[in-house]
Amino acid sequence: MSRFAAVAFDLDDTLCRHDHDVDALYRRAFEEAGVEPFGEPEELWPLLDGPPDPDDRVGYLGAGFARLAAQHGRDVDPVALAAAFEAVADESRVAYLPGATEALAAAAAAGPVGVLTNGPEDRQRAKIEALGLDDLVDAIVYAGDLPRRKPHAEPFERLTAALSVDAEETLYVGNSLSYDVAGAHNAGLRSAWLRASPDDAPGAYGPDHVVDSLAEIADLLAEGRGADGREPGGEAATTEPEESR
């Protein structure tokens, strides 16, 4: 018997990632905007402000292009570049992260399975279909279509209601401390933070579990001790002090 009644997952950078040829996509965006290319994708990503803004993806990308144009001394319309980037991106070009299908199978063996994404359905639906998630999960909540997104409690409440489970019996797996972990905490769910690197620490956040790979989810769902060595209801076992980053 699993230690949780249900398991739910974030979508982007938790279950899947984009599978584009990023260099080709970057060049196509400049071609679409009629702008002579400058810079490289690797220069753009660090200039973006945290996770994408579901309300204004063009503005989010445009701010990065504005900074990149300033660094290269180019006089361009960064919003037009960002809009071109969004126009040529194919949302169906996604692939499962390592261990994702195994984690979904382990979750299904434990109980109902859900997906909660901050994006709207018109953007995320292509990813869901490409991954075949309709056949693998019991409920999908698109917080981008709700009045409030993660880390607000409402999307999580919609999710647990759709799964017909109590919040405190539900594990939510996500890669973002400020959206996934904070949101799960606010709604009373247990959280498993999928960190990008073993050197990453939760800082001021307190995920119930910390995993370095989705392959650890099966052990985490097992009865008794989880993959992080934590008893149900106990403290998360991490080696890093919470104030470190």
TrEMBL record:
Record keyword Nucleotide-binding present: no
The keyword Magnesium is assigned to this record: yes
Alphabetical list of InterPro entries matching this protein: HAD-like_hydrolase, HAD-like_sf, HAD-SF_hydro_IA, HAD_sf
Short name of one Pfam family: Hydrolase
Biological processes per GO annotation: riboflavin biosynthetic process
Cofactor: Mg(2+)
Domain of life the protein comes from: Archaea
Family recorded in the similarity comment: Belongs to the HAD-like hydrolase superfamily.
Protein name stated in the entry: HAD family hydrolase
Organism of origin: Halorubrum ezzemoulense
